Amino acid sequence: MDSINTTKSGFVTIIGRPNVGKSTLMNHLIGQKIAITSKKPQTTRNRIQTVYTDPEKGQIVFLDTPGIHKAKNKLGEYMVNVAESTLKDVDVILWLVEPSNFIGAGEQHIIDLLKKGTTPVILLINKVDTIDKPKVIEYIDTYRKAYDFDEIIPISALRNIGLDDVLETIFKYLPYGPMFYDEDTVTDQPERQIVAEIIREKALHALDDEIPHGIAVTIESMKYRKNNKGQLADIEATIICEKNSHKGIIIGKQGSMLKKIGTNARYEIEKLLECNVNLNLWVKVKKDWRDSDILMKNFGYREEDI
């Protein structure tokens, strides 16, 4: 029988409010870290595409999107547009929520968006490892009354609970068809973009709450050369911030903070590129870049890419 008729392939978007665990879920589903994670909201800014392939069943192309939230600036508006625009283009929607009885304004907004479409929606109630079983049934009931979901699955993205069930269920709703990518493809993200995101993640982890929202990372150059240990990648990157006072904090006393960010980033970039890395970090101030169309485009946030 022709493989076109035996395998299924399609696009699946992961939506939810900021900081609910979407990037953690996607990394665990594909079994590799691609999306950056942190406990701070607005960690994911662009639509990140990753690929899960099962040679027998087919291929799932996941879109990890920014959290849907009330935008406060142009970058916020861009992020919400990225998230909401994916709802129309996919075969299945995964909606990830916190375990709770309370459906707030943010969740209600997502429900209203879902009601406008006909795409199958699978609700994933995350972090069930943190609550008692009777509560899980209660929360499922709360959400079932709010929207007619095709499936509801309790999971823990962090602890890998219920994720096989999620993959199995997604395949149920995908159309039959050929695979979009080679079997060994894990993401469509360019290497430079993943490197920039790793540096931004390490800065998010190291810095205080107010500053991370206002940073972007650009890769100025990335070159490979041979050395006595094999291959070496020379990377020059700039951390962009919005205020002079932030620049001082990012550099730290005698460069200590920048060194910490660089050391943590280099360790992970070496794992990604599978070679030694020489990483040089710089810090520049671009005042209010999150409200500048030109600067947002320069830093990789382009409306035309949505």
- In the CATH hierarchy, what is the class of the largest domain? Alpha Beta
> Number of helix segments?
10
Low-confidence stretches are 38-45
CATH fold category name of the largest domain = Rossmann fold
CATH superfamily of the largest domain: P-loop containing nucleotide triphosphate hydrolases
Count the strands? Answer: 9
Q: Assess the beta-strand content as a share of residues.
A: 15-25%
Secondary structure: helix percent: 25-40%
Order of helices and strands: HEHEEHEHEHEHHEEHHEH
How would you describe the overall organization of this protein?
The chain has 306 residues and is an alpha/beta fold. The protein folds into two domains: 171 residues, 3-Layer(aba) Sandwich (Rossmann fold), CATH 3.40.50.300; 115 residues, K homology (KH) domain (GMP Synthetase, Chain A, domain 3). The protein has ten helices and nine strands. The strands form two sheets. A six-stranded mixed β-sheet has the order 2-3-1-4-5-6, sandwiched between helices. The longest helix has 18 residues. The protein is globular, with a radius of gyration of 20 Å. It starts with a helix and ends in an 8-residue tail after the last helix. About 3% of the residues have low confidence.
State the gist of this model.
By secondary structure, the chain is an alpha/beta fold. It is 36% helix and 23% strand.
